Amino acid sequence: MKPDLRDYIPSVGLGLTQILGYGSLMYAYAVLLPRMADHLDLSLSTVFGILSLGLLFGGLVSPVAGMLVDRFGGRWVMTLGSIGAGLALMSLSQVSGKFGLFLAILLAEGAGMFVLYNVAFAAIMRIESRVPAARAISIIALFGGVASTIFWPLTLSLANAFGWQSTWITLGLMVLLICTPLHFVLLGGPQKGPEAITAPLNQDWPELQGAVRQKAMLWMILSFVFSGYVMGAVMTLWVSNVQTLGHTAATAAFAGAVIGPFKTVGRGFEMLVSRNLYPLVTYAMSLGLMMAGFILLLGFGASFIGLLCAAALYGMGDGIKTIARGTLPLALFGQQGYGARLGWMSFVQMAVNASAPFTFAYLAEQFGGWWSFAAMAACLCFALATYFLIPDPRRNRHVAA
């Protein structure tokens, strides 16, 4: 049977919670951490180094969250996670030094691993639904794409009007009062049985087995690591890096806000063509668009139009990549153990990518924002190189299940 509108409610609702989750647990740092650094008399590299440690801790927690969803479903995992995330965000308003900042960010990023994309993708996979899994993932990611559009200017406005302490309290309350009930209600439906979980996702997408499966996992994770290294840096350093190119903070925030709508444009395009495109193709498209954005940024980022066009291209690529991050492991390795697999992949990525804010903040301090962006572009080159080493099951059906 074809899905009706009611079947899409869980995906749409989870997409709304991703707007709040990424807006408060990721994008808000770009605006608020520099202000906190000034107030606490800390350097920019110190506060972003603390954030890096928080991201590393989140990576350690991620496999646990994935395994819990595989075993129990996403309802209680995401409900309790949103409570923890909301309280942790509010605690950021009370920090008075390095140790307090470290502890609050540690709690926020740990709780975030129970409510952000990987867990949301795994949770929607467990629900008995007529909506195809890849389509449900695309819908969740489609909504999450506007997080930067909403939260960079919103956070900047709140901070200018009320200060960074009140802003963190407001963000925490939003997560508590909106995400918690949505997670509890939306994920309470029937869960898939063992037979549905072990069934092939798509008859035209054979799963890899044996040694080639391990090879695919290795190169896919490496490619995700390199491209994710860039994403973490852009989310936290876009505003401050763009300012060093000669723009004001308001202009940098506005250009950053452009990224979000074009993430949605990219994801909307992916949804239109996803029935005809294999996830390896969409992932290649995403890397190409992100690389084009950085080339434009490095060449013409000092101009307002060049900055906006670069943000648009990068946003489209990053938007499509988020979907590929969920659908490519499904296509290559199947549904069984999907949550735990995403969790372990997230652990590896975040263990490496946790250093991104500190690394690129240090480069920006020492050499300027342009060179920080140039280093991000180099990471994308490595992501493209490792992408081409991922085996395609459609061309290797003799080694696929």
From TrEMBL:
<keyword id="KW-0813">Transport</keyword>
<feature type="transmembrane region" description="Helical">
    <location>
        <begin position="216"/>
        <end position="239"/>
    </location>
</feature>
<dbReference type="GO" id="GO:0016020">
    <property type="term" value="C:membrane"/>
</dbReference>
<feature type="transmembrane region" description="Helical">
    <location>
        <begin position="12"/>
        <end position="32"/>
    </location>
</feature>
<feature type="domain" description="Major facilitator superfamily (MFS) profile">
    <location>
        <begin position="1"/>
        <end position="395"/>
    </location>
</feature>
<feature type="transmembrane region" description="Helical">
    <location>
        <begin position="136"/>
        <end position="155"/>
    </location>
</feature>
<feature type="transmembrane region" description="Helical">
    <location>
        <begin position="370"/>
        <end position="390"/>
    </location>
</feature>
<dbReference type="InterPro" id="IPR036259">
    <property type="entry name" value="MFS_trans_sf"/>
</dbReference>
<feature type="transmembrane region" description="Helical">
    <location>
        <begin position="76"/>
        <end position="95"/>
    </location>
</feature>
<feature type="transmembrane region" description="Helical">
    <location>
        <begin position="101"/>
        <end position="124"/>
    </location>
</feature>
<keyword id="KW-0472">Membrane</keyword>
<dbReference type="InterPro" id="IPR052983">
    <property type="entry name" value="MFS_Riboflavin_Transporter"/>
</dbReference>
<dbReference type="InterPro" id="IPR011701">
    <property type="entry name" value="MFS"/>
</dbReference>
<feature type="transmembrane region" description="Helical">
    <location>
        <begin position="304"/>
        <end position="324"/>
    </location>
</feature>
<feature type="transmembrane region" description="Helical">
    <location>
        <begin position="44"/>
        <end position="69"/>
    </location>
</feature>
<dbReference type="Pfam" id="PF07690">
    <property type="entry name" value="MFS_1"/>
</dbReference>
<keyword id="KW-1133">Transmembrane helix</keyword>
<feature type="transmembrane region" description="Helical">
    <location>
        <begin position="344"/>
        <end position="364"/>
    </location>
</feature>
<protein>
    <recommendedName>
        <fullName>Major facilitator superfamily (MFS) profile domain-containing protein</fullName>
    </recommendedName>
</protein>
<dbReference type="InterPro" id="IPR020846">
    <property type="entry name" value="MFS_dom"/>
</dbReference>
<feature type="transmembrane region" description="Helical">
    <location>
        <begin position="167"/>
        <end position="187"/>
    </location>
</feature>
<dbReference type="GO" id="GO:0022857">
    <property type="term" value="F:transmembrane transporter activity"/>
</dbReference>
<keyword id="KW-0812">Transmembrane</keyword>
